[in-house]
């Protein structure tokens, strides 16, 4: 028995099923998306929200564009959010907390579903009042590495449907298109297949805060 085989056997023996992650996997398999309430608790949401607001007030954000770095265009008629890319290596206390939870999920997905997620990219996002993001798909013609899209909402606890800003995911059931409106409640995380599900952000009536990003293969 070689060293690699021994390591793999020990990893299998150490594995413990996580019911919380298993529910996420079940929803992704059955629906191609999942909604996870309270993925982050109230204290964690407050930390991340305060960090986002502080960085926005320091003018660290920039107007979001469409396309990837090789084909990037700012188009206000398509999307209206402002973003700040997060660097895990330079993460502060709040951002480190976020990445630790995401890394735990990624490790579990790779071990149980063999997704081959190797990299990730995330940014803070702030949608001012009146902004939106038209229907689109989270993949590019010249880059198909995005496997799963993930949105974490950092809004106030009293967020109401009339505040707008809902995420609408479009899917197909029995050959008929259906849509699912998901409101950006604090601590809620939405995960969906990047290359399959089109989606949009409806017009915002109160500033909408989130962390948005992608889990990517090679």
TrEMBL record:
Pfam families: 2OG-FeII_Oxy_3. GO terms for biological process: cellular response to hypoxia. Keywords: Dioxygenase, Iron, Metal-binding, Oxidoreductase, Vitamin C. InterPro entries: HIF_prolyl_hydroxylases, Oxoglu/Fe-dep_dioxygenase_dom, Pro_4_hyd_alph, Pro_4_hyd_alph_FE2OG_OXY. GO terms for molecular function: ferrous iron binding; L-ascorbic acid binding; peptidyl-proline dioxygenase activity. Gene3D superfamilies: q2cbj1_9rhob like domain. Coiled coil: none annotated. PROSITE patterns: FE2OG_OXY (PS51471). Residues 113-217 form the Fe2OG dioxygenase domain. Its cofactor is L-ascorbate. This is SM-20-related protein. It comes from Salegentibacter salegens.
